[in-house]
Design brief:
Helix content is 42%, strand content 14%. By secondary structure, the protein is α/β, with parallel strands linked by helices. The chain has one domain: Rossmann fold, CATH 3.40.50. Helix 3 (62-75) packs parallel to helix 4 and helix 4 runs parallel beside helix 6 (151-171). The radius of gyration is 17 Å and the shape is globular. NADP nicotinamide-adenine-dinucleotide phosphate binds at residues 13, 15-19, 37-39, 57-60, 85-89, 109, 138, 140, 182, 184-186.
Length: 241
């Protein structure tokens, strides 16, 4: 069972939607939290009121990622866990940008940022008082099958999924490294009705579960002492359809 630590949990991209929900839930439990955010969000005031430390960060280049790591190191003397949640949902179809630029954005946020943060923050995880600490990569269920419409997104999330196993090998036994691969968690407000219907029909359970299921999965991984190098499918049975 997960018990709060005095060392903070870092959640990247934590100012909205799933990351915000998880940051809020951990903070309400008395668990210190640090989030990164890229743009200003009204939610930042709510998080600050709960004692969450919010660091502005744009993961669009190695230099910017390293600047974030420097600021994080100035802020925290240890970390209980790192949750790589920051993500971009741009696709080849919904952007005008050239494909090379799209792939660069995807690889920076989904691969380069987790890669550099994991390498540079190992010592912060080792300084927490817990017997084991955690890195959790939030990927996507599409990495297993590929995607008709999100090629760069899926490929870069697959890279992140692969890093789960390499970092698990390298960081055992002190740091556990796992991934969570969700299917639909929450729609965007402007998602069309036909898209919603099609998405719901892709899983056996057929629901939009909301962000709480991801929070529950995080608590499971943080509280479990014997799981590393695995990907937890949080997909409503989508893999069976
Ligand atoms: N929502 C779902 O149904 C679903 C389904 C499958 C998988 N997932 C995965 O679950 C996680 C949470 O989903 P979500 O829908 O809550 O995510 P999201 O809102 O699309 O993205 C989370 C945050 O990532 C930040 N971000 C994007 N690009 C960035 C960059 N270059 N540098 C720094 N931060 C950046 C954004 O910050 P700003 O807003 O401040 O710009 C955003 O708030 C994601 O990893 C997603 O891939 C979600």
């Amino acid at each position: 069972m997960f018990k709060p630590s005095t060392a903070p949990i870092l959640i990247t991209g934590g100012a909205q939607r799933v990351g915000f929900h998880c940051a809020q839930r951990f903070a309400e439990l008395g668990q210190p939290v640090i989030i990164s955010y890229r743009q200003h969000h009204e939610n930042l005031d709510k998080l600050t009121d709960l004692g969450v430390k919010c660091i502005q960060a744009d993961f669009s280049s190695p230099e910017r990622i390293l600047n974030f790591i420097q600021e994080l190191t100035n802020t925290a003397s240890s970390l209980r866990a790192i949750v790589h949640n920051a993500s971009s949902w741009l696709t080849e179809e919904n952007t005008e940008m050239p494909p090379e630029q799209l792939m660069s954005i995807m690889t920076q946020v989904h691969m380069m940022a987790p890669y550099l943060i994991n390498l540079h923050c190992k010592s912060l995880l080792e300084k927490a008082k817990e017997a084991t600490t955690d890195i959790i990569h939030i990927t996507d269920c599409v990495v297993a099958k590929g995607s008709y419409s999100h090629i760069a997104y899926t490929a870069s999330k697959a890279g992140l999924d692969n890093m789960t196993r390499s970092f698990a090998k390298q960081y055992a036994p002190d740091i556990k490294v796992n991934a969570i691969a969700p299917a639909l968690l929450m729609f965007h407000p402007d998602d069309p009705a036909d898209y919603k219907q099609k998405s719901l029909s892709k899983s056996l359970l057929g629901i939009e579960p909301g962000p709480e299921v991801l929070y529950e999965a995080l608590c499971f991984l943080l509280g479990n002492r014997y799981m590393t190098g695995h990907t937890l499918a949080l997909d409503g049975g989508r893999a069976l359809k």
